[in-house]
């Protein structure tokens, strides 16, 4: 029954059966503990998994590689990188011997915990112990390099993976594009997308989010709008991160009307904008001397459930001050919803065709 609960992701129910088992005088074995720890891993309960790890040893049940792999994975999902490394150190000292799954979970934990150098070090350890990295290993390593802002190292790992006859998948390519994004290498990000298409690897929303972010940072506004349209032609549905990159590009290209249209589209999809996206939009409205639209953008985002950060609260308060609404400014600084400043129309009247003209200008500048 515990194994059934584990496969069904019912960690609490699994623990209930475990308690009943002990109350009945039955002695749990390695299979029982492995199922329980795996259930905790799936339920994102690393502390409970670690307690079971201690309990089994106290009862004289020695953990095997499956136990440790599930435990390290539980720590990875629970953002407890140091605990995962401690479990691995115990394995190195006392056994059992780690396998590829062990290292993959540990490298992923280091990647999520921002320990890029440690992830690379673990890959070296893995190979010294005679274990061959697989695609999962390389994907996690490249992602770690992305978080560590090491695009050149990420590219080297990608090349090494190919030299070893391993075919990249969409996760690997997404990690590489993310590395180029964080390293300010938009052209390399574009080349990677082209490589994916030649290999028959279908890009997903994560692919385009990283690509659009890279292009926006390089002020390639026309390319952002072009690829944004292209992803939708593929049938991919933009998310809040996608719209954030597009609106950020519009800010760099001073395309206010285009940005407002994308903000409208994002809200129409029921998406909650990120604070940074609204900061960019509010800033554009203020520079265009349109504080009423800045206030409306802030209010619309709050209604969607966005939690404003300090930078956004400050920007919104400035807009309310310009509108002669000091009370609303104070509420904005407190992160609260002010009384609506708009009529039924969400934005100030916009000249017809302005956004389309802005977009055409940006695409011409990109040579498209």
TrEMBL record:
InterPro entries: PPR_rpt, TPR-like_helical_dom_sf. It holds the Pfam family PPR_2. It comes from the Eukaryota. Keywords: Repeat. PPR repeats lie at residues 1-28, 29-63, 64-98, 99-133, 134-168, 169-203, 204-238, 239-273. Residues 335-356 have a biased composition (Low complexity). Residues 331-368 are annotated as: Disordered. This is Pentacotripeptide-repeat region of PRORP domain-containing protein.
